[in-house]
Amino acid sequence: MPIRILPSGLIDQIAAGEVVERPASVVKELVENALDAGARRIEADVEAGGLRLIRVRDDGSGIPAAELPLAIQRHATSKIASLDDLETVGTLGFRGEALPSIASVARLRITSRTADAPAGCEIGVDGGEAGEPRAAAHPVGTTVEVRDLFYNVPARRRFVRSEATEFGHIAGTVERLALAAPRVAFRLRHNGREILDLPAAVDEAAVAARVARIVGAEFVARALKVEQQVGPLRLSGWLGLPTAARSLTDLLFCFVNGRAVRDRLLAGAVRLGYRDVLYQGRHPVYVLHLALDARLVDVNAHPAKTEVRFRDPRAVHDAVFRAVERALAATRPDAAVPAAARLDLPAAGHASPAPGPGRVAAELELWRTASAAALPAATPGAAAVAEPPVLAQPLGQALAQLHGLYILAQNAGGLIVVDMHAAHERVLYEALKAQYATATPAAQWLLEPLVVPLPEHEIDILLEAQADLEKVGFELERLAPGELVLRRVPAVLASGEIAPLLAQLARDLAGGHGTHHLEGAAHRVLGTLACRAAIHAHRRLTLPEMDTLLRQMEQTERASQCNHGRPTWTRVSLAELDQLFLRGR
To answer: Among the residues of 277-411, which ranges form H helices?
Structure first.
């Protein structure tokens, strides 16, 4: 076949394949155009999942009648005029491709009026063939109607899913755009039935109400509010508590300068911020807005503009990661915050067996060390200051143990139940991290070097992280192909645990799980050490020991979740207890 110039209609349909993936893509482009036009109210009507009709009406600035024929031409736009403009794009759209692409695969009609025009103007396009503009009655703003989507591209229409599925994508698109622009009112109807009616949010309470309407009221009630400025980057929004994590990734909302994006770098940074508190296989819930200078982000990186590139990706990654990590560090027991364990969670799956007699002394020593790190040192004259009643403290006063697994305590509000292994694991982990940042944790030299057989590639991975492992307490080197020799190990490890621990650590490092370029492999090892050394099931504690653990939890970061994301405590209020026993009736 000879080289030839393609017909303009075919070129438009090829371009439409990149921009118009499904009906939701049309809704996205039209609503973004309305937002760029300064609309304060946007209404979308959809029929048959968007295949029969998509109508988007706004009260924005409108399109002058003389410019309507240009609006449906490829690469015609009012949003950029030069390369400099492209590098500082502040609008959601800018390429001038959406309307002509839609018009090439549907029947399109645009009606618009500007504030200074005596009447509106209308233009229609059928399968890429434009009609003549004509006068039409219309308020200030624009209405775009898209009918019979893909009617002239049967192959594309066959790939469209069911009406319910396609409308689900449309509803999700409108919800994301409504979260991105809370000051704009949105209404969505499907087949004449109202699905969404979101008034403009005029204050922070109204913004929170919109988030609650879309993401869920329970999310907002339990989420952590984030407002942090890191250099030129500002991060704001809501982070769901770790115990609100889900098996699906459908409630991850991320916006960059008001643009809804699905960015791997940002998603990875947020997930890394949750690394010490997220249950395995679960995904966090969040609504985060990232604002930075438009010159520091490239939005011209994806046909659908859902991905961006940052001029300094490492700096952005670290800023987001640190902001999320700092916010989650505050999730310690607080009497004013609902107990984390009230949210639905999978069953626990990481309980460790009871330790042997030789481990008890090491555990107690590590616990005492952790206590010293977690509790503030006494100061002169402190005894003269009245201590608050223990019942007023978030976790109250210990009463007893239950089945060797739970600590029962009472505070001013009711009954507190603490998972003693999970709670102690978090306290130890945070103490070990603090020690790691300042000095080497306790280690012991082996009387005889321990030879551990491992696959050669796993040995290579461990030796790459050798510096971090030495700071944790290991001293290791290659003895021979397939053999690693250890001469020093962390004091809290029993010899029988070392080989499986190293094998698991090598697999985690190979997969990139639980590591970060600033901390390397160390935190993974510290988490494992904390889990192994924490109080185990059926270990009998005295009441003073229980109270010591409760006070440590109250002063330990992230103490509302263990290292695996499980809740460490819950509360049953006096009102709930009264209801159980019908008191006051």
So the answer is: 313-329, 360-374
CB atoms within 10 A of CB 577: 12
* Rounded Cα–Cα distance for residues 134 and 131 (Å): 9
* Residue 363 binned pLDDT confidence (cut-offs 50, 70, 90): very low
State residue 469's pLDDT score.
Answer: 83
Amino acid at 517: H
Pair 488, 443: CB distance under 8 Å: yes
Whether residue 441 contacts residue 434, with contact meaning beta carbons closer than 8 Å, is answered with no
497 C-beta neighbours (distance < 10 Å), count? 16
Q: Which helix (H) or strand (E) holds 544?
A: helix 543-554
One-letter identity of residue 349: G
DSSP letter at 382 equals G
Within 63-177, strands assigned E span 107-113, 120-126, 129-130, 134-136, 141-147
How many Å apart are CA 550 and CA 574, to the nearest integer?
20
Whole-number Å distance between alpha carbons of 66 and 115 = 14
Q: How confident is the model at residue 524 (pLDDT cuts 50, 70, 90)?
A: confident
- CA pair distance 178, 35, nearest whole angstrom: 10
475: helix, strand or coil = strand
How far apart (Å, rounded) are the C-alpha atoms in residues 224 and 284? Answer: 12
pLDDT at 395 over 70: yes
- Helices (runs of H) and strands (runs of E) counted in the chain: 19, 23
| pLDDT at residue 385 tops 50 | no
Average pLDDT over residues 355-373: 41
* Pairing outcome for strands 141-147 and 107-113: antiparallel
Residue range 19-31, pLDDT digits in tens: 788 999 999 999 9
Helix, strand, coil content of the chain in percent (nearest 5): 40, 25, 35
B/e letters for 7-19, b = 16+ CB within 10 Å, e = fewer, are eeeeebbebbeeb
Decide: 242 and 328 in contact? Cβ < 8 Å.
yes
Averaged pLDDT, 32-37: 93
What's the Rg (C-alpha) of the chain? 30
Q: What percent of the chain has pLDDT over 70?
A: 79
Query: Over the stretch 231-280, which tens digit does the pLDDT of each residue have?
Result: 889 999 999 988 788 888 888 999 999 989 988 899 999 998 888 888 76
Distances in whole angstroms, Cα of residue 497 to Cα of each of 409, 493, 519, 533: 34, 7, 23, 12
Instruction: Identify which has the larger pLDDT, 322 or 85.
Output: 322
Q: Tokens 């982000």 appear where?
A: 297
3-state secondary structure at position 24: helix
Question: What is the pLDDT averaged over residues 116-138?
Answer: 91
With bands split at pLDDT 50, 70 and 90, how would you rate the model's confidence at 79? Answer: low
Can you list the pairs that 400-408 forms with residues at least 24 positions away whose Cβ atoms lie under 8 Å? Answer: 401/540, 401/541, 401/546, 404/537, 404/538, 404/539, 404/540, 405/537, 405/538, 407/541, 407/546, 407/549, 407/550
Q: Give the closest residue to 529 by CA, choosing from 433, 412, 453.
A: 433
Structural domains for the chain: 8-198 (3.30.565.10), 204-330 (3.30.230.10), 357-373+391-571 (3.30.1370.100)
In terms of DSSP bridges, do strands 286-291 and 252-256 run parallel, antiparallel, or are they unpaired?
parallel
